Amino acid sequence: MASNSSNHTETADTQESTGGTSGSDWSDAGKAGQPGSTGEGADASMYKAREDADNFGRKAVDATQDYLQEAQAKASGAVQAGKAYAQDAVNAAGKKIESMQGQAADLKQRSVQFAADEPMRAVVYAAAGSAVLTAVLLLWMRGRR
User: Fold this and answer.
1) What pLDDT, on a 0 to 100 scale, did the predictor assign at position 90?
2) 79 in any annotated domain
3) Where would you tag: which of 33, 43, 79, 104 has the fewest CB atoms within 10 A of its CB?
C-alpha cells in the first residue's frame, strides 16, 4: 500500500512541474477557452475532416470521370473499327455480286451462241438436263412424304 501512495505523489509532482498539465492535449481538451479545447478544437477537427472528405470525394469523381472518358474513347474506337469492318464486308459482297453477275451474263451469252451454232446438241443437252432435274425433284418429293 505504501507504493500506491508514492505513485500518487509522483503524479502530483509531475503535474506541478508541468504547470498542472499532464503534457497531453487529450487531458487538456476539456478545459474551455484554451486552444485545442473541445469547443474550438472540435470545430477545427470537424472542418479538417469535412475538407478531407470533400477532397477525397473530388478525387474520386475526377478518377471516375477519367475512367469514363477512357471507356468512351475505347468504345468509340471499337465502334469505328466495327463500322470499317462492316463497310469492308459490304464492299467485298458487292464486288462478289458484280463478279457473279458478270459471269452469269457471260454464261448466258455463250449459251445463246452455242444454241445458234449447234441447235441439235443444244436440244439434247436441254432434254438431258430436264430429265436429271425431274428425277431429283421426284426423289425429293418422295422423301418428304
Assistant:
1) 95
2) yes
3) 33
Q: Cα separation of 9 and 17, whole Å?
A: 12
Give the model's pLDDT for residue 112: 94
Question: Which residues in 8-125 belong to E strands, given as ranges?
Answer: none
> Counting every residue, how long is the chain?
145
Which pLDDT value is given to residue 45? Answer: 86
What does the radius of gyration of the chain's CA atoms come to, in whole angstroms? 49
**Residue carrying the nine cell digits 500518487:** 8
Q: Which three cell numbers stand for residue 137?
A: 425433284
Q: Can you read off the three cell numbers belonging to residue 38?
A: 473541445
Q: Which residues of the chain have pLDDT under 70?
A: 1-39, 145
- The total number of structural domains in the chain stands at 1
Q: Specify the DSSP class assigned to residue 119.
A: H
Domain boundaries, position 115: 39-144
- Is residue 18 assigned to a domain? no
pLDDT one-digit tens code per residue, 61-94:
999 999 999 999 999 999 999 999 999 999 999 9
Collect all residues with Cβ–Cβ distance below 8 Å to 27 and sequence separation of at least 6.
21
88 within domain boundaries: yes
Residue 20 falls inside a structural domain? no
In degrees rounded to 5, what are phi and psi of residue 112?
-60, -40
Q: What is the amino acid identity at position 66? A: D
